[in-house]
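FAQ

Q: What does a record look like?
A: Structure on top, sequence underneath. For example:
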């Protein structure tokens, strides 16, 4: 086992060196530089452009990105992405007949929260797949496992890989795009999410509505509705009432399709459609935007959901987290009493923190950090100073900044909420 690990590490280092050399050669050609000019631009000696490990330090990555006019993450992604042959080797021995069992086993492992095994089985299913649609489906189920364990970047990579496969059945391609829209929304890319989801909805309206197309439609409605909902400001929101009505309609159609799928013969059940269980709480927020007279009822019901006890049924904890977001938004729009508002924001923030910490859901973690920051900023006279950055908070901050690009502009604010080391204060 030790020898095998050493061999794998050596192969990865060799691959990283090759890729770094490729990028440097590309930069030289792109800039029309000599080796010496490249070395000066990268801040290195001409004979030491590539480290032995193949993995450059951050200053070299930044300099190389500038030389190529690439985003820094594009350079890192090229250097660290796994070689395709390694993925194929991991699935050696599987035949075409194994696809269905591997695919279904990956689903079961994800449902039981064994995400590493779910990913491994999905990779094997992709190699055993004998049609473009099956290869795309395997990438999609691998994406779901990555998303479930909090790796949004890997999830999006899998979906983009699936979207580039030629010959995929239209319904499956639309489902992949709908999944993309959902991840884009969770990463804070609301405009892209709305555009992608709207495209899916346009095409699903034109094709035969089999169960895959229907699931694509439900997910697209879900993603677009949330992107629209999240676009409504908490102040001066009256002009946004038509947007709230559009989002509410999307949610209602999503729930309707979800119920049809649950009652169908295609094997859908609660754990496949957990997102549908949260539609009602999102609608409460939107109705409160449209109708001021409904606000008190909405807050009462949302408080009931957030305060509900724990439950192992699929979607219950997720529903509480969505209710927490709806509660916080509604309270910020209408509650004028500082103490009452402080209590609601604290309750919502705690519910989001608990769910995010348990599931590595970085969207909910982002909302928790935003609420915690706003609660302290708006109600500073009632709030305490920064807290110690414990393991849970460190996980949430790191996860959000790593997987939600829209949050990175607020990185300083998040770090200011917590002490950066034991016993310290800003």
């Amino acid at each position: 086992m030790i020898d095998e690990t050493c061999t794998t590490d050596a192969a990865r280092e060799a691959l990283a060196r090759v890729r770094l050399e490729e990028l440097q050669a590309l930069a030289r050609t792109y800039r029309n530089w000599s080796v010496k000019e490249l070395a000066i631009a990268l801040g290195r000696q001409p004979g030491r452009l590539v480290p032995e490990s193949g993995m450059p330090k951050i200053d070299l990555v930044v300099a190389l990105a500038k030389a190529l006019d690439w985003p820094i993450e594009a350079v890192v992604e090229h250097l660290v992405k796994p070689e395709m042959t390694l993925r194929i080797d991991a699935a050696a021995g599987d035949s075409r007949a194994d696809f269905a069992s591997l695919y279904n086993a990956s689903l079961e492992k994800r449902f039981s929260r064994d995400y590493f095994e779910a990913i491994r089985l999905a990779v094997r299913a992709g190699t055993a797949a004998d049609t473009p649609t099956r290869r795309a489906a395997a990438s999609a189920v691998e994406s779901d496992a990555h998303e479930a364990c909090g790796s949004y970047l890997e999830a999006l990579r899998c979906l983009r890989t699936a979207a580039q496969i030629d010959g995929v059945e239209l319904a499956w391609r639309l489902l992949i795009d709908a999944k993309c829209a959902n991840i884009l929304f969770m990463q804070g890319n609301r405009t892209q999410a709305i555009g992608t989801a709207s495209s899916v909805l346009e095409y699903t309206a034109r094709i035969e509505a089999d169960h895959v197309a229907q699931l694509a439609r439900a997910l697209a409605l879900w993603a677009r509705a949330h992107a629209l909902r999240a676009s409504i400001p908490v102040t001066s929101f009256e002009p946004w009432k038509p947007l709230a009505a559009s989002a509410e309609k999307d949610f209602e159609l999503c729930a309707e399709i979800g119920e049809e799928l649950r009652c169908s013969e295609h094997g859908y059940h609660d754990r496949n459609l957990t997102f549908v269980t949260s539609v009602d709480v999102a609608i409460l927020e939107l109705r409160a935007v449209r109708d001021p007279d409904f606000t008190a009822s909405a807050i009462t019901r949302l408080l009931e959901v957030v305060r509900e006890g724990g439950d192992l049924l699929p979607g219950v904890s997720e529903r509480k987290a969505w209710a927490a977001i709806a509660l916080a938004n509604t309270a910020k729009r209408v509650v004028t009493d500082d103490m009452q508002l402080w209590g609601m924001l604290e309750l919502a923030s705690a519910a989001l923190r608990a769910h995010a910490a348990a599931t590595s859901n970085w969207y909910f973690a982002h909302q928790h950090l935003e609420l915690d920051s706003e609660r302290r900023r708006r109600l500073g006279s009632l709030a305490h100073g920064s807290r110690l950055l414990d393991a849970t908070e460190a996980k949430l901050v790191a996860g959000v900044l790593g997987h939600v690009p829209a949050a990175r502009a607020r990185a300083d604010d998040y770090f200011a909420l917590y002490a950066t080391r034991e016993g310290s204060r800003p």
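Q: Is there anything notable about this one?
A: The mean pLDDT is 85.
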